[in-house]
Amino acid sequence: MTTQTAGIHHITAFVRNAQQTADFYAGVLGLRLIKKTINFDAPEVYHLYFGNEIGSPGTIITFFPWENSRKGRIGGGQVGVTTYVVPADAFDFWKERLAKLKVAAEVTERFGERYLAFADPDGLKLELVARAEGPASKWAFGGVPASKAIKGFGGAILYSTSPDKTADLLANVMGLKKVGQEGAYARYKATGDLGNLIDVNTAAMEPGHGGSGTVHHIAWRAKDDEEHAFWRSLVAGNGFQPTPIVDRQYFNAIYFREEGGILFEIATDPPGFARDEEPDKLGGKLMLPEWFEPHRTQIEQLLSPFEVRILEEDKG
Q1: Of 18, 63, 92, 174, which one has the greatest count of Cβ atoms within 10 A?
Q2: CA distances for 87 relative to 109, 181, 240, angstroms
């Protein structure tokens, strides 16, 4: 049985407004809304999933839009920066696109790669990097052709309050390999070709606090239910306290908090997002698990309507 994760399955964050989020992640970044559902623990709040054309593991960012939520502060115990990867020849396209859409961006460098760093409307820190590895997205939307589209995650920067302990977990439990250290960061690599490069701060960071514009958790991939159960045993055997396995409809999940304060999830690749919608209709309607279906009318009345729409700058 393997003890190496392929990398990031998904990343989940807090935002305030569903329409603003759809306009940014679909309209600006060209991602596909692949599932519109609710927070199973708070059904008055959407749970929105954006990814490639089918929501492949390693491409999925999810959001809880909470209209009156407090503003978060990014810091230790969180994913500090979410990294997206684009095709090798697409860096200048994205630099020009963000400038055209008046999204402030800065070119930075880390481990010999150029990054385009920017933030979403809630302040969530994002960056783009161009790499040849990883399958291309087949999704085109608005001003983003498939040939330039975001492939999925390049990785993430983890902000830890105890970086040595976070690094030990990544290397000795999750199975990532340390591949470099430069300046403020150490780099770890998973076995997959998306969501596979994880940078960790080498000096302890002051804790952040949750709220809009911050990441709630990062999820790692398990290839199937058998491996998922093994992961739970492995995590528990290393002194952590994983939750029971939770059915999230589109994957099964366990959660635990690592010693640097970051909430980790391990999620199964199957069954995926086409289990209750046809692939060409993903994200088209509000999907509810069967135990909430009798309450659909009340739930829909609590949710603000929104739409995925092409930005005015991309029309004509």
Answers
A1: 63
A2: 17, 25, 38
Half-sphere exposure of 151 (CA within 13 A, CB side): 24
Q: Which of 72, 61, 13, 67 is nearest to 44 (CA)?
A: 67
Residue 252 located in a structural domain: yes
Per-residue tokens: 287: 């999907």
Q: Report DSSP state, residue 300.
A: H
Compute, in degrees rounded to 10, the torsion defined by CA atoms 135, 221, 288, 79: -90
Cα dist. 140→36, 63, 209, 227, 234 in Å?
19, 21, 35, 34, 40
Domain span at residue 230? 8-314
Q: C-alpha distances in angstroms, 44 versus 39, 184, 274, 302? A: 7, 40, 24, 6
Q: Is residue 193 part of a domain?
A: yes
CATH code: domain of residue 287: 3.10.180.10
Q: pLDDT digits over 11-22, tens only?
A: 999 999 999 999
Please report whether residue 214 resides in a domain. yes
Helices (H), the chain: 18-22, 91-100, 163-172, 225-237, 296-302
Q: Tokens representing 298?
A: 């009340």
CA angle in degrees (0–180, nearest 5) for 234-236-238: 70
The total of structural domains in the chain comes to 1
Q: Does a structural domain hold residue 3?
A: no
185 phi, psi to nearest 5 deg: -130, 145
pTM for this prediction = 0.97
Contact indicator for 309, 23 with CB cutoff of 8 Å? yes
**pLDDT tens-place string over residues 62-114:** 999 999 889 999 999 999 999 999 999 999 999 999 999 999 999 999 999 99
